Amino acid sequence: MFAVIIVVTGIPILLLPESPYFLYNKGQEKEAIKVLKFLHGSEHLALQEVEEYTLSSKQEKVNKIAVLKNPTVRKSLLISVIFSIGSQMVGYNAVSYYLQTILISTHTSIMPEIASVVIGIIQFVSSFLTMFTTDRFGRKIILISSLVGMTIGLIGLGTFFKLKPPNSEPVSGFLNILPLISLVIVVYCYNAGIGSLIWATVTELFDGPARAFGVAVNLGVNTTLIFLTTKYFPILISEVGPAITYWSFAVVSILLCLFIIFFLPETKGKSFGEIQDDIAKKTKEEIEEAN
Length: 291
Known about the structure:
Blueprint (H helix, E strand, L loop, with lengths): L1 H9 L9 H6 L3 H12 L2 H16 L5 H5 L2 H19 L2 H6 L1 H8 L5 H25 L2 H25 L14 H15 L1 H11 L5 H31 L1 H22 L8 H19 L1
């Protein structure tokens, strides 16, 4: 069945146009403009992007040390790395990877298999709806709302494990549906917010030659923390208990929310240069205050 899904989803790839940047590098500028015009719906935007290709091709290889000497780049890197650390330390990957195990451990009357399907559908729908919310609201308000929702869900999950009867006794009443409600909230809020916007936000914090370096660093940070949170999640559960574990994730969500409110610049509707100007302005003000 999975092989059939791969084939069905892979066929449309054959109909996709070649990357315009690849075409430009191969000397096929007219074809690149044609593809860009199709993607942007505007010949002016297509020509503008080709000009950017021309400028980028003339730039020398990025000197990472020279890039890091720029205080604006350093601040962008610091903000993005803290944001990446927080986005993984909220524990979503640990919860999603061990979803079936968590549902079985609740000992509720809701079948874990059915609950997993429901949560999977919620995950798909929330990711799809992000396409519409990002066009209407700013990045920060979506990220903050996402983390507030995750905090509520994680607190609910921790509360369930704190209150549930010991020795695998059956659960009844509101406690019977509390873990499913909490997991749905966590999954929906993560995928409708921070889970879908993390790479868009990180990319927008950098401009020019610093972008590739900044994104690469954040990719390494995210990958490392995904491994650590999923590797040691069962150990944390066994050592401190599920309630403390989920409440700890909730605390991280609150701290990340505060960090976004006070330190992450709004990027929606701004060019890369304008975002860098905002970060540079704040950096200059902080240096002046320090002196």
